[in-house]
Amino acid sequence: MTKRELDESVNYLIGKGFDAPEVGIVLGTGLGRLANELEDPIEAHYNHIPYFPLATVEFHSGKLIFGTFQGKKVVVMQGRFHRYEGYDLVDVTYPIRVMHQLGIKKLFISNASGAINTDLKKGNMMLIEDHINLQGGSPLAFKNVAEFGSRFTDMSGPYDAEMRKKLLSIAAKENIILKEGVYAAVVGPQLETKAEYRMLKILGADAVGMSTVPEVIVANHLSLPVVAVSVITDECDPENLAPVDINEIIAIAEKTEPNMVRLFKELIKQL
């Protein structure tokens, strides 16, 4: 990644009409419908944006959408990138750097994840308070990283405390179940074994997924306040483990999505 490549990506989007967005939103598996609520949307497909990776997962649609949401200019990633698609972590997080250079001041992330903590049930949402990176690498581990920010980025408080507090308050007012917990990011794409779920519990994870952490690391590298919400789509109790059905995971995410949209809507109103 070079500054010239980043400039080309950004200039292409500005030319399309992506005009100084305030908020970036990354939508996870089964959570793409928020984009339908944008006013005056402008779309840019990933395969048209210079130097952008291509989304290869069939249920990730692969476009960047600019528009107005709750009176704020936003840019939405409808479809994200994953390590398991064969990308390195610099590619996975390239869109975060593009959105930041376009002008975003806050970043919202959503994902679908499996519950390690048995208090979390399918259809619940979990506000991520901290994470464990088990993806075997860092999106900051490249030669010229110092051109983009401090190489040794502090991660003592990776998720913005003020936005987390607001989301908990919104959830209470809206009668939405929103628990807090620790998210573990693994590579995937295979699901975990019973032994791996036991390990994750010992490590202190409340939920597990295959995304989000690289984007959060880069947001912190850019001093970009970030908040992330997991939609719990399966329960990973190793003592009562049933085979996972990806179609069921997507269906649960889609069913829960309206609550996530309500949280993000109200948070954007309060910014």
From TrEMBL:
Quote the InterPro entries the UniProt record gives.
Nucleoside_phosphorylase_d (IPR000845), Nucleoside_phosphorylase_sf (IPR035994), Pur_Nuc_Pase_Ino/Guo-sp (IPR011270), Purine_phosphorylase (IPR011268)
Q: What is this protein called?
A: Purine nucleoside phosphorylase
Q: Which Pfam families match?
A: PNP_UDP_1
Q: Which pathway does the database say it acts in? A: Purine metabolism; purine nucleoside salvage
The alphabetized UniProt keywords are: Glycosyltransferase, Transferase
One GO process term, biological-process aspect: nucleoside metabolic process
- Give the record's family classification: Belongs to the PNP/MTAP phosphorylase family.
Quote the function comment for this protein.
The purine nucleoside phosphorylases catalyze the phosphorolytic breakdown of the N-glycosidic bond in the beta-(deoxy)ribonucleoside molecules, with the formation of the corresponding free purine bases and pentose-1-phosphate.
User: What does the record give as the organism's lineage?
Assistant: Bacteria, Pseudomonadati, Bacteroidota, Flavobacteriia, Flavobacteriales
Cellular component (GO) terms are: cytoplasm
Q: Which residues form the Nucleoside phosphorylase domain?
A: 23-269
Domain of life of the organism in this record?
Bacteria
The EC number(s) this enzyme carries: 2.4.2.1
Record-level Gene Ontology MF annotations: purine-nucleoside phosphorylase activity
